[in-house]
Design brief:
Blueprint lengths: L1 H14 L5 H21 L6 H23 L3 H51 L4 H24 L7 H7 L1 H32 L3 H6 L6 H4 L14 H7 L3 H15 L3 H5 L6 H23 L4 H8 L6
């Protein structure tokens, strides 16, 4: 693995100053693969789930690079698709924040009801004022603690820490006034960047790669989210002549990382056989990607790598 990684790093160094966009794009893909692979496979206590995720990422990177190699205009499709991925991510965040706002308002109402109920009980109780107030304070703390505990059981991801410092009402208001507009601005900026990419390519190109340029995309003021159909990794693997690799790796890793019988029954200790299989796969994918990049170098640059080719 070390020799494979070193060879890839040397290739990246050669391409670092290339003015060619495709060279830079390819280099970025390989560089990300190297970073994640080194981190996962050199860790003393390895995580099998992490190794599976990294190996799948490396295979997907190779698939994309193969497709770019077949048609370098595909880099535009990838760039366009990357923007869409972030748009979809922000759309998901937007929807989740809106759901959490509704939950926050519901708990704000419950909090007010608790306060009113305890206040009404306070005026009805008899006894020493100090004892009554003490009981009121204790009851309020217990009920609000229970309310906060119930809140943590809700489908919330973004707001828990803010709630316990700022309260339900203020947190909901802050999200509505500040967070949601920021997310919408990011979406609009990404749509603008997508339109710039579209200008670089013909419409038939985008139809070829299943990218639908709707009338909303043509509109510079478009603020709505556009669903762009995307090819599955299985189909892309077939187009990249990597179907066998895809079929094996996805089935193999799925049996490890998903919550299925085999994952429950497997022992906690990492199986070295699994590690070796995943390392062999990742090393192969990185090696092929490196060769693709080497082909983009001048002949004199490639001679440097031929000597160790068989050992990596």
């Amino acid at each position: 693995m070390l020799e494979t990684i070193n060879r890839a790093k040397q290739t990246l160094e050669k391409l670092k100053k290339s003015p060619n966009f495709e060279d830079v794009f390819f280099s970025f893909i390989l560089d990300k693969c190297l970073y994640q692979t080194e981190l996962a496979f050199r860790r003393e206590e390895k995580s099998l789930n992490e190794l599976c995720a990294v190996t799948r990422f490396n295979l997907e990177a190779l698939i994309d690079m193969r497709l770019c190699e077949q048609n370098e205009s595909y880099t535009l499709a990838m760039e366009f698709n990357q923007k869409q991925t972030f748009i979809n991510l922000y759309k998901t965040q937007l929807e989740q924040y809106q759901q959490e706002i509704a939950i926050l308002k519901e708990y704000e109402k419950k909090e007010s009801e608790i306060s009113k109920l305890l206040t009404d009980e306070l005026f009805q109780k008899k006894g020493a004022q100090s004892d009554v107030m003490k009981k009121f304070g204790t009851d309020r703390v217990e009920k609000e603690k229970q309310l906060d505990d119930d809140f943590l059981d809700e489908a919330i991801y973004f707001t828990p820490s803010r709630v316990f410092s700022d309260g339900y009402a203020f947190t909901a208001s802050m999200i509505e006034k500040k967070v949601l507009p920021q997310i919408r601005d990011k979406i609009n900026q990404l749509l603008k960047e997508q339109r710039e990419i579209a200008k670089k390519a013909k419409k038939d190109f985008f139809h070829q790669f299943a990218f639908a340029l709707s009338s909303e995309m043509q509109d510079s003021k478009a603020a709505s989210l556009i669903e762009i159909p995307q090819e599955s990794w299985q189909k892309k693997a077939s187009e990249a002549n990597l179907s066998n690799e895809y079929k094996f790796i996805y089935r193999y890793t799925s049996s490890i990382i998903h919550c299925v019988g085999l994952a429950y029954l497997s022992k906690k200790d990492v199986d070295e056989n699994d590690v070796n299989i995943l390392e062999t796969a990742s090393k192969r994918y990185i090696r092929i990607m490196t060769k693709i990049l080497e082909q983009r170098l001048k002949p004199d640059d490639i001679k440097l790598f031929q000597k160790n080719d068989s050992s990596t």
